[in-house]
Write a structure and sequence with these properties.
With 314 residues, the protein is mainly α. Helices cover 75% and strands 1% of the residues. The chain has helices spanning 2-17, 24-47, 57-74, 79-101, 107-124, 130-133, 154-177, 180-190, 192-197, 202-228, 238-251, 258-276, 281-295, 299-313; strands spanning 139-140, 230-231. The protein has a two-stranded antiparallel ribbon with strand order 1-2. Helix 12 crosses helix 13. It is globular, with a radius of gyration of 20 Å.
Length: 314
């Protein structure tokens, strides 16, 4: 625990200091890294801790982004208030989707969530919804300035806002997985029948976890809409869901700090692959991913756990 707290403190100090030493574009990239980390953390709660496999979290990211954009564009609501609104909307959608998903396991649940991911961009383009979603043209939003006369640029302020959201959601997730509820989630992941025989309401926990996971991803989507200033249906395709899943695996299944490592991988490695070969960037990215999984089959979380065991043995 001492190592974990020290590492968290060092990370927080560095995260607070870094915007003053980097350019606006790098600040934007780090903001997106934190946004992806929130989405990956939400997916990890569902897949890593509860054992439900999802390929549809791009849909919740899209719903969160459009909730924020519509509230700001159509109703003039402040961008801060759109974050809890996006979380609540996505929690409701995820909770309701979790009910029919209770009958599905493994491959069948993955197929159902895949259908959700594929259908969402098409639904957002429907003519009856164009007044709200902007159809294929999407919705533009204004980038907010720093409040209270703070001497910060817009990019720096959004970075600190996203950092605050990440820290808050990380603490909530950490408390959740270390509580009695978290132990129930792990029991359901390992053996649902045994968990039910111990008095755990498996159906309730599964649907609630789906809702909480969707809420995290929805808040990430809302932050993404505010930072990028634009949302469009084609930005939330199925590959975004795959990208989140890659982040979970690279960061480490059921290891919350791995969200940062997974987000860094999915944000920076594709650019690195494109620098190596623009025509074969996809192949380079795939080779890097294969090598990484071969070297770290348990993700970054497995490497860190092994290192901590060595330190404690000494």
């Amino acid at each position: 625990m001492t190592i974990e707290r020290t590492t968290a403190l060092v990370f927080l100090i560095c995260a607070l200091a870094v915007p003053a030493m980097i350019s606006g574009f790098v600040t934007f990239q780090l903001t997106m890294l934190l946004i992806y980390a929130i989405a990956i953390m939400g997916l990890n709660l569902l897949t890593g801790f509860n054992g439900q496999f999802s390929l549809g979290h791009s849909a919740f990211y899209a719903i969160g982004a459009y909730t924020a954009a519509i509230l700001m564009d159509q109703f003039g609501i402040g961008y801060i208030w759109t974050l809890p609104a996006a979380g609540l909307v996505c929690f409701a959608v995820g909770f309701l989707f979790g009910f029919p998903a209770l009958r599905l396991e493994g491959t069948y649940l993955a197929l159902a969530t895949f259908g959700l991911a594929v259908a969402t961009p098409q639904i957002l383009k429907l003519t009856p919804l164009e007044h709200w979603t902007g159809g294929v043209q999407g919705v533009f939003v204004m980038k907010p300035n720093a409040p209270f006369g703070l001497p910060l640029t817009s990019d720096q302020w959004l970075y600190y806002l996203t950092l605050a959201a990440f820290v808050l959601l990380y603490v909530l997730a950490k408390n959740l997985v270390t509580s009695r509820t978290g132990r129930a989630l792990l029991a359901i992941r390992e053996n649902p029948i045994a968990a039910q025989s111990m008095g755990i309401n498996v159906s309730l926990y599964k649907t609630l976890t789906f809702g909480v996971s969707a809420a995290y991803t929805g808040i990430a989507g809302a932050l993404g809409a505010i930072v990028i200033q634009f949302v469009a249906p084609d930005s939330f395709g199925f590959m975004l869901s795959v990208t989140f899943l890659v982040g979970v695996v690279v960061g480490g299944i059921a290891w919350l700090p791995g969200a940062i490592i997974g987000a860094a991988f999915i944000l920076f490695v594709p650019n690195f692959a494109e620098d190596i070969s623009k025509g074969l960037s996809g192949a380079v990215y795939g080779i890097i991913m294969i090598l990484l999984i071969y070297v770290m089959p348990s993700g970054a979380g497995g490497i860190v756990s092994s290192a901590l065991r060595v330190l404690r043995s000494r």
